[in-house]
Amino acid sequence: MDRPPTLAESVEAAAETLVGVLEAARTRHPSPVSPTQLRVLSLINSRPVTNVNTLAELLHVVPSSASRLCDRLEAIGLVCRVVDQRDRREVQLRLTGAARTLLDELRDQRRAALETVLVRMPVRAREELLSALVAFGEAANSAEVPEQRARTA
Q: For residue 26, which of 42, 9, 48 has the smallest C-alpha distance?
């Protein structure tokens, strides 16, 4: 006899569906960057003070691999390297206006795809989902898991 799914299994299945909706939104609109390059842009965007070594740690790659990724993004005008005025040995990674526009467009595409799904849900279910997601976020952010904090920071 089949047992009903646990809450964790249901959340995992919902997360996989959510990733599918978001990925479908991304692939419907051709992007000049790969998913890995997009992740780099998102990481730099969420961390105003990022250098290649920090980026390498976040990506779990060696610094030379992170540097090559940045070289490619710099070559297509999405990232620039800026010398830190306080410590001239330090080089920070910055997004260009084109990168910010790309990220904004992707965010808008993803939100539109989510809205398409959400409007098919009953109003009460949407309200309950919002409440549950807020509670989930608060619980996740209060957990004492350093690696998780680094990913969400």
A: 42
Tell if the pTM clears 0.90, that is, is over it. no
Q: Which two tokens stand for residue 115?
A: 């809205």
Mean pLDDT of the chain: 89
CB atoms within 10 A of CB 29: 10
- Does residue 49 carry a pLDDT above 60? yes
Cβ count within 10 A of residue 122:
8
DSSP per-residue letters across 57-68: HHHTS-HHHHHH
Angle 35-46/52-59 helices, nearest 10 degrees?
Answer: 120
Q: Extract the runs of DSSP E, i.e. beta strands, from the chain.
A: 79-83, 91-95
Per-residue model confidence (pLDDT) at position 152 = 47
Cβ within 8 Å of residue 17, ≥6 positions away: none
Q: How far apart are CA 113 and CA 130, in angstroms?
A: 17
